[in-house]
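Lecture notes, structural biology module. Today: joint structure prediction for complexes of two components.
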Amino acid sequence: MLVQIVVSGLASGATYALIALGFVIIWNTAAVVNFAQGEFAVAAMFVALVLSRFGHVPLFLALPASVAASALLGWLTERIVIRPVIGRNAMTVVTVTIGLQIVLSDGAKLIFGGQPYPFPAPFSGAPLGFGGVVLPRQSLLVILAMALLVAALHAMSVLTPFGKRLRAVAQDREVAAMMGIDVNRTVAQGFAVSAAVAGVAGVLLAPVIFVSADLGLPLLIKSFVAAIIGGFGSYPGALAGGLLIGVIDNVVSYAVSTDYRDVISFLVLIVMLLLRPTGLFPNHR
Amino acid sequence: MAATALLQTSGLTRSFGGLLALSDLTITVEAGGIQGLIGPNGSGKSTFINVVSGVLRPDAGRVTIAGRQIAGRRADIAARAGIARTFQNLRLFGGLTVLENVLMGGHLRLRTGLAAALLGTDRAREQGLREHAEQILALVRLTHRMRQPAGTLSYGEQRRLEIARALAARPRLLLLDEPLAGMNPAEMAMVVEIMQHTVAEGVTILLVEHAMRVVMAVCARITVLNFGRCIAAGPPAAIRRDEAVIRAYLGRARHDA
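The predicted structure, tokenised, for the full assembly:
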């Protein structure tokens, strides 16, 4: 039974991990703590919902389209909201992203109301059994998709000129500019990639939970905690932190009570900050 | 003197609070060879390099490279106009490998579109950049360190890597900000050799340096700054005899020369 709980915790943890990963991409390239990161995931959920439920677009088209839409939202966020305040006082930038979070979340509420919408699962069918452990297909898909996406992001970062450009900007904006890199443009592209990753997390999560306008903030908080536990700015850290939070959530919900899972998440965060403030993977960027 | 000015600044002024770092500075760098830029600490040499390379905006004045006005524009625009530089305090991408650092220097010769980058449609040009990067690494004698993270190199090696990264951009004008600082004589000789090879390839170098013997030996022309103004300009022999220079600078430096 414990294995069961851990595995389904890994599945929800994988989505936290992806959102945390996007969060860290933005932090590393632009030094911006983006509190609207959860909304990127929610935006993708709603685009997929509208396309598939109301537009009758098949899921295999609706899902990529919704990820593209959240990438566009990320890119626009940098152009319209972040660029005018970049380089200002850190609190100003943070306040702006909090403002954006509220605008996006309340905007979704205006359009869709506060009620939850069911979302169709891409793969239906009986859960798969592995030696006594029963796994819903969607959980497997989530874990598999996370692993693939992480491998793809890593390859992009190491192998492609775009990835190297992102890393160069992350390490030293000024020198990167002197290499002829258009820093603004690279940062905007970083936002797009980051939002796309959050979008993937959103559409993977959508069939498991009900889609609703107020999901962004709790998702953000989970991923924020995950990123800090992992070591802020660390990619493997964001992954490990996300998975850990997912598992802790699930174990606590089962063993104690659902009411206490956020309490325990934050307790872990506090203990972590006290004992190992640099996180699990402080030096892996 | 109207022959071939590669870099021309006029009326360049920049202050930090009450300190006037550059004051109505007019400097000409002609194409070809090594030109020296010297002056006591705080005379405005680094500010000058920062303004020319687009890191700092001037309060007033113009910077033209090969006829293009670039003052106050972004650093990537200065880079595209043909300016590359090194830093007084090393600024390598420590987490990237030695080869990646040099490739990053050649970056502006790649197309930067996201689609092209992700799809890898720029392979041929990338291959060309890579070959060029390997030639440069051979020139600065870092071929054997190619796959190591730049942060693991020794100080002298990191300095040479900065020069290599700047050269990868195929600049017209290379700004070297104290490339010899903290080096032993053998390492200095290696850097001088790199500079001479670079000049032979048609690149112009503006050299900011405190090692007077080297400056006097390699520069065809020297400009001297003090308190953000140009107090003298000319060939080394004339600079050595210049009263204002001796008073401002060489008078003290001569003891350890």
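Point to remember: The interface with chain A takes residues 53-55, 74-76, 78-80, 84-85, 87, 91, 93-96, 100, 103-105, 107-108, 110, 112, 114, 117-118, 120, 122, 126, 165, 169 of chain B (CB under 8 Å).
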